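Q: My labmate handed me this sequence with no annotations at all. I'd like to see what the chain might look like in three dimensions before we decide whether it's worth expressing. Could you predict it?
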Amino acid sequence: MASAKDIDDFINSLKAKLVCSDLILMESICSADMADAVDAQVNNSESCPLLRETLQELRRRVCEPSGSYSPPGRNQPFDSSTSRDWYDWILELFKELLRRLQQKFQKALEWLHQIAAACLQGLRIAAEAVWRVLNDFCSSLEQLFRSLIQV
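A: Here is what I predict for the chain of 151 residues:
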């Protein structure tokens, strides 16, 4: 027959597993909602169009799961006489959730900065090429007009 302590430990273990699985679901929902918000912002903004592939990759990076949350180990059991340890643990898990979401978006933003820098580099190279062609054309016109004036 199980003792009251064993039953309390079992109940606390179930609580911990439920909280961990709920945090994974909450992280997934938050990530998807934030990706939808970014999507809506980009679609409503004429000043920052993103290619559909770039937007999909950004969404994939933001919505990618960041791992599981672990219940307290054997060396950190809950004290069934007080719920303070339980709430402290939940608070720590929530802080971990927020930290993971922040890291995920920082990494996605860094990736987006790299994409933007590469695009701007490409635009600069294209503008320089157009400038060279235009400059060559103007030089040719200048030589043509000089030869016409000398005749």
